[in-house]
């Protein structure tokens, strides 16, 4: 039986696409007869208090995995919009994980490390040499490019230095897993990496997670935003859309978390059409998403964000609701080419509202998009199918 060590900052029972990705990876590799261990931090995102509730610990198969899940405690658990505070937070996690690696007596056939943050990537590189084994680098986002994209970190020398570190990681890895095809050309140009060194495993869902489409309950005039309200998401656009939706009597539900949440909620809570729901488990979230007509996705208009596919796109497809995406690049092509919604490269709220109304007034089209979305999950964003690429490599 081959042994795999996963190194990840986030993991079950945390919410968000990062933790969900690693949870699926852990469970599915074990089902494929790998001996899997994970080094991770105690659940704290978006805040540690929510994990005191028993309902977040809803995967019995993982609750029994006491020996193979090693967690480090972090002193600074508060997520901050300050980039420097975040950097210190990342460094603390990296340092403590390295200590865990030094104390560990096991041997592994593969190290699987997920980045960003890039510091976790370098912990994986340290582990590669410590255990004298192969390193699989999982890239979920381009970093430090995404730092530039959010527009709050403009220290050229530090970004240049991080860019060098990023290139080293790409070159020293034995295999690179990417969760977006938009990353392929960037990594190729950045470090001269051949396509054969990369495996495309997108964020996805399990077939059993698909929510049945209720064809007799369409056109409730309800739109939802579910997910991170952070520096990369265009929360200002949601703020501008809220009063327009209110005038049209279109309900807006937000299930959100992240550093921009408080600011956004304070700016729109006066509108009677807005409902804000606190973070919940993925299963609970899917039930609520499925009760809406449309799912909203917003990203800042930056070159780096043209390469990503936000996790909430996959969530909306799984729940059988069409997408209104204020996105460009790879995400736009996925939405448009597969007929699962409408993708707009604009920051004009009036124009966005027009497309929302268009979709809300066409029940037949929305139903077709809903079915297209779930078929897309089964064909391309299916964890059970996509994990075989990684299994084949490791075998």
Give an overview in words.
The structure is a single chain. The protein has 395 residues and is α/β, with parallel strands linked by helices. The protein has two domains: 199 residues, Glycogen Phosphorylase B (Rossmann fold); 173 residues, Rossmann fold. The strands form two sheets. Strands 3-2-1-4-5-6-7 form a seven-stranded parallel sheet, sandwiched between helices. A six-stranded parallel sheet has the order 10-9-8-11-12-13, with helices on both faces. The longest helix has 21 residues. The N and C termini lie close together (10 Å). 43% of the residues are buried. The mean pLDDT is 93.
Secondary structure topology:
Layout: E1 3-7, H1 17-31, E2 35-41, H2 60-63, E3 69-72, H3 83-103, E4 110-115, H4 118-131, E5 134-139, H5 145-150, H6 156-172, E6 175-178, H7 183-191, E7 198-200, E8 222-228, H8 235-247, E9 251-257, H9 261-268, E10 274-277, H10 282-289, E11 294-298, H11 311-318, E12 323-326, H12 330-337, E13 341-343, H13 349-360, H14 363-380, H15 383-394
Parallel strand pairs: 1-2, 1-4, 2-3, 4-5, 5-6, 6-7, 8-9, 8-11, 9-10, 11-12, 12-13
Helix pairs in contact: 1-15, 3-4, 4-6, 8-9, 8-13, 11-14
Organism: Bacillus salipaludis
Family: Belongs to the glycosyltransferase group 1 family. Glycosyltransferase 4 subfamily.
Pfam families: Glyco_transf_4, Glycos_transf_1
């Amino acid at each position: 039986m081959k042994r795999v060590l996963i190194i990840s900052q986030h993991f079950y029972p945390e919410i968000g696409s990062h933790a969900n990705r690693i949870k699926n990876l852990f469970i599915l590799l074990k089902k494929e007869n790998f001996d899997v261990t994970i080094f991770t931090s105690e659940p704290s995102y978006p805040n540690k208090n929510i994990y005191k509730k028993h309902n977040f610990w809803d995967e019995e198969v993982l609750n029994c995995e006491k020996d193979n899940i090693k967690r480090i405690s972090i002193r600074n658990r508060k997520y901050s919009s300050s980039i420097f505070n975040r950097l210190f937070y990342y460094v603390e996690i990296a340092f403590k994980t390295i200590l865990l690696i030094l104390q560990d007596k096991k041997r592994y056939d593969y190290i699987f490390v997920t980045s960003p943050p890039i510091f976790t990537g370098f912990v994986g590189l340290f582990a590669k040499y410590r255990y004298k084994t192969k390193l699989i680098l999982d890239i979920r986002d381009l970093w430090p490019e995404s730092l530039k994209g959010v527009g709050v970190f403009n220290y050229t020398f530090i970004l240049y230095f991080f860019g060098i570190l990023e290139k080293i990681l790409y070159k020293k890895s034995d295999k690179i897993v990417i969760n977006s095809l938009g990353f392929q050309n960037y990594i190729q140009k950045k470090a001269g990496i051949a396509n054969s060194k990369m495996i495309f495993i997108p964020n996805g869902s399990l077939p059993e997670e698909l929510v049945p489409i209720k064809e007799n309950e369409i056109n409730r005039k309800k739109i939802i935003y579910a997910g991170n309200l952070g520096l990369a998401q265009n929360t200002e656009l949601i703020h501008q859309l809220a009063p327009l939706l209110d005038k049209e009597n279109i309900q807006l539900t937000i299930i959100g978390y992240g550093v921009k949440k408080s600011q956004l909620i304070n700016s729109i809570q006066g509108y009677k059409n807005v409902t804000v729901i606190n973070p919940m488990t993925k299963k609970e979230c899917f039930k609520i998403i499925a009760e809406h007509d449309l799912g909203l996705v917003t990203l800042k208009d930056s070159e780096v964000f043209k390469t990503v596919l936000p996790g909430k796109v996959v969530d909306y497809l799984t729940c059988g609701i069409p997408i209104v995406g204020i996105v460009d690049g790879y995400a736009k092509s996925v939405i448009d080419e597969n007929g699962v919604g409408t993708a707009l490269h604009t920051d004009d709220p009036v124009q966005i509202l027009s497309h929302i109304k268009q979709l809300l007034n066409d029940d037949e089209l929305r139903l077709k998009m809903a079915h297209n979305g779930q078929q897309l999950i089964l064909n391309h964003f299916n964890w059970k199918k996509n994990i075989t690429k990684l299994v084949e490599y490791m075998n």
